TrEMBL record, chains A, B:
Reaction mechanism of ThiL seems to utilize a direct, inline transfer of the gamma-phosphate of ATP to TMP rather than a phosphorylated enzyme intermediate. The keyword Nucleotide-binding applies. It catalyses: thiamine phosphate + ATP = thiamine diphosphate + ADP. This is Thiamine-monophosphate kinase. Catalyzes the ATP-dependent phosphorylation of thiamine-monophosphate (TMP) to form thiamine-pyrophosphate (TPP), the active form of vitamin B1.
């Protein structure tokens, strides 16, 4: 696909010095209680209260992970926080700090970089997360990429994908399929039919605290839904050596909520929609923590079934060429 | 500038699945003693022995940070480890773990990704560093970028840039100007005139242990030379509110060593050559640690002087357009 830039007025990165750009960006990036040393030296120093640090990294590339027509710079900054902090939450942790790398065509508007930093800084501040470092580099014409690394603390042992046991309940915290529904609406040029879903696609706001809450409640396995419910449930099934059996009746409300918005695609959005960043976890029999609802059970076997029928999850591969086309699809679900 | 790809035979990233690519890459990436949980779950978990973690991030972009004509994929992987681990060393720390993000044109040869991972893995293993996570993404045609985040432990308080005191000695551990000399030789198409310098440019091997050793010896300020001796000494001067006075006579051996290799450019390489990743530190009066040599002193005042004369450091800005040209220079010194 071709570049998706919407021309913006004003100065470009090539018009100002790196130092000046940093002077614009650094003030909008929050500090936080875990920061022992922030940006400006060779490295940052971040408290790791428990003597161990959770670490994950996730990048967004223009034309692959967002289109400028559909997502503002601020949206991109906010989504990067959500993607990375959801991974930390999915281990049962709290995110303490982020490092951010911007690799940009020198013709990128300064306003884009500033607005991305503003969105990222605002989402980080709302989550109590500091931005402690980063890197800037120029890139070939048309390329715009932001990479984030998140660090976090967990008070419990990390909740892996491999701990689910036969008899566990499968539960979700948060929405299902909203991001995919929002993307569908943008592709159909009818964002007004589902403003909440479009907003969730642009800037998901997972309930990060549900991760540590689930861990404290004894969750046996957990991840965040980045590639779709079925595909991600399949990861738990595979890592744990079990089958995940989802019940259509327990997903009925999720499908019904999206039907007015995307019609017959609602079921596919719920089952295979990615980038949702809601948490999916397994819990032993008994009461679920507040904010979690059961959608199925862990059984013997392999793979994921919905109402007893095996399903494939679809999902996105970053490099593989789709069978029908020479071009990669415009956006991926991760 | 235009793309600098050297055509390579064999399959491209678009020919194989992401899973298959990971199967090729993961086995060449080392684990290490600090790894409590490695790749494969939502995040890694890395020991932070002292209750705090050093964190830094540095990216390399093809055409900006390397040219395929001059650097192999393995060189790029090795250099990324050096750049990041030198930053950790410059705080007085040992690097424990790396996270690696590859953002690549789907037409990138699989062999390039595998060889980059092999170089990165080998350099990490030699330094006792684990690779614990990462991300893969496709990029617009012609773009190839690798971003690394390094985590580290320090047994001492981190050695900042701001602690230099009037009367301190200024000292360096390792070579000066070799990377710049190597780059000059590549630009002049005469790599055979200085194979050691060319190798240092392609895959610098800083003595990481000198960082913790300097910290234990009471270093008051430290950084690694990434943008050139004068420019980086200026950072210590500025952060510490002092002047750095370098002595030409103490740099004579460094200049003499490079004169047979790059002639009259030897002095400029020593004073302003970047990407060297040798450590520069200030120490109180007295004996220096083994492996360190004095090159000057900390004085009252501002900026950097060589034999009493103020000097400017030159150096690279990532986005600023050079005055004489519409095109960015082919490679930067960082």
């Amino acid at each position: 696909m071709t570049s998706s830039r919407t021309p913006q007025p004003g100065p470009r990165l090539s018009d100002i010095s790196e130092e000046r750009l940093l002077r614009e960006i650094l003030p909008v990036l929050p500090s936080g209680p875990a920061v022992l040393l922030g940006p400006g030296d060779d490295t940052a120093l971040v408290r790791a209260r428990t003597g161990a640090v959770l670490a994950t990294t996730d990048a967004m590339v223009r034309g692959r992970d967002w289109l400028d027509e559909w997502s503002t710079a601020e949206d991109v900054g906010r989504k990067l926080v959500a993607q990375n902090a959801a991974d930390i939450a999915a281990m049962g942790g709290h995110t303490t700090a982020l490092l951010v790398t911007l690799v940009a065509d020198p013709q990128t508007p300064v306003a884009w970089a500033r607005d991305m930093a503003r969105g990222l800084g605002a989402a980080a501040a709302e989550a109590g997360v500091a931005v402690v470092g980063g890197d800037l580099s120029s890139a070939p014409a048309g390329t715009l990429m932001v990479s984030v690394t998140a660090l976090g603390d967990a008070d419990t042992a990390p909740v892996l994908r491999s701990g689910a046991r036969v008899g566990d309940q499968v539960a979700v915290s948060g929405t299902l399929g909203w991001s995919a529904a929002g993307l569908l609406l943008l592709q159909r040029d009818s964002a007004e039919s589902g403003p909440d879903q479009v907003t969730w696609h642009r800037r998901p706001r997972p309930a990060y605290d549900q991760g540590p809450a689930a861990a404290a409640h004894g969750a046996t396995a957990m991840l965040d839904i980045s590639d779709g419910l079925v595909r991600d449930a399949g990861r738990i099934a595979s890592a744990s050596g079990v089958a995940v059996e989802l019940q259509g009746s327990l997903l009925r409300d999720d499908v019904d909520a999206l039907t007015p918005v995307v019609g017959d695609d609602a079921r596919a959005c719920v089952l295979t929609g990615g980038e949702e960043h809601s948490l999916l976890a397994c819990f032993p029999e008994g009461e679920l923590p507040a904010g979690w609802r059961r959608i199925g059970d862990v059984r013997t076997g392999v793979g994921v079934r919905v109402d007893g029928a095996a399903v494939a999850g679809g999902g996105w591969d970053h490099f593989e060429r789709p069978a029908e086309s020479e071009e990669p699809p415009p956006l991926h679900q991760e």
